[in-house]
């Protein structure tokens, strides 16, 4: 059930048979969510952390005027709230953007890992550090990149992350977000988003249709985005 997590962690270091077996033993409960349903609610104090097995989910904050800002996108293999274990109270919500299959790791079991399995602890810690690195890239994109470069960077990032967990098909991947949800990611109006997407279509770097993104010119897309995947720490080395 947790193959996507094993692929994610295994892209950064080698898991021992004991570590893999322990993860399989503690992540056993699962559940399905429909699009629009909260996986984790803001203000809650969950006693478990949620692993996304399949689907797309997003971290978000809602403003007083009802507008929403999406602050992260999650794909298969992501622990969407591993940080809830030490933080306790959630300061944001996590919503399903598509049908989502998730599993849960009890915080008591995670605590036992930190006390008994130092290498696995470091790999799970790294998972939250990569979340932080992605947040930094998103802040840079929001504040300093053009919206054209911002969209290109997001497409590059998702393609690499989904490749790791074997959710791409050639140069294509499923992308179930609506344009309204995409505008919430970028912090722009739907009109602005449409104009920028049209410009990228004219450049012929990727196609977004039928909830699928197909990359046509990977080299040019990376050039527009100034994309360097180093921040994703996808290199297998001792941790």
From TrEMBL:
Q: Which CDD domains match?
A: CAP_ED (cd00038)
Q: Which UniProt keywords apply?
A: DNA-binding, Transcription, Transcription regulation
Give residue ranges for domain HTH crp-type. 145-219
Membrane-spanning intervals of the chain: none
List, alphabetically, the InterPro entries matched: cNMP-bd_dom, cNMP-bd_dom_sf, HTH_CRP, RmlC-like_jellyroll, WH-like_DNA-bd_sf, WH_DNA-bd_sf
Asked whether the keyword Nuclease is assigned, the reply is no
What is the name of this protein? Crp/Fnr family transcriptional regulator
């Amino acid at each position: 059930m947790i193959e996507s997590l094993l692929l994610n962690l295994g892209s950064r270091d080698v898991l021992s048979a004991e570590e893999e077996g322990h993860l399989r033993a503690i992540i056993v409960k699962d559940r399905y969510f429909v699009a629009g349903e909260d996986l984790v609610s803001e203000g809650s104090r969950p006693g478990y952390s949620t692993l996304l097995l399949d689907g797309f989910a997003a971290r978000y904050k809602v403003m007083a005027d009802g507008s929403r800002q999406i602050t992260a996108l999650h794909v298969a293999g992501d622990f969407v709230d591993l940080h809830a274990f030490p933080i306790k109270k959630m300061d944001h919500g996590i919503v399903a953007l598509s049908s989502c299959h998730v599993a849960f790791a009890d915080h008591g079991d995670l605590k036992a890992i930190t006390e008994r399995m130092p290498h696995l602890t470091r790999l799970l810690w790294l998972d939250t550090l990569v979340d932080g690195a992605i947040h930094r890239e998103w802040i840079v994109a929001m504040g300093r990149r053009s919206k054209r470069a911002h969209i290109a960077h997001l497409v590059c990032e998702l393609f690499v992350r989904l490749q790791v967990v074997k959710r791409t098909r050639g140069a294509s991947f499923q992308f179930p977000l609506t344009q309204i949800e995409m505008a919430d990611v970028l912090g722009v109006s739907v009109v602005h988003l449409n104009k920028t997407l049209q410009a990228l279509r004219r450049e012929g770097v990727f196609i977004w249709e039928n909830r699928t993104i197909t990359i046509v010119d990977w080299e040019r897309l990376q050039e527009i985005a100034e994309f360097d995947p180093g921040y994703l720490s996808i290199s297998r080395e001792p941790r």
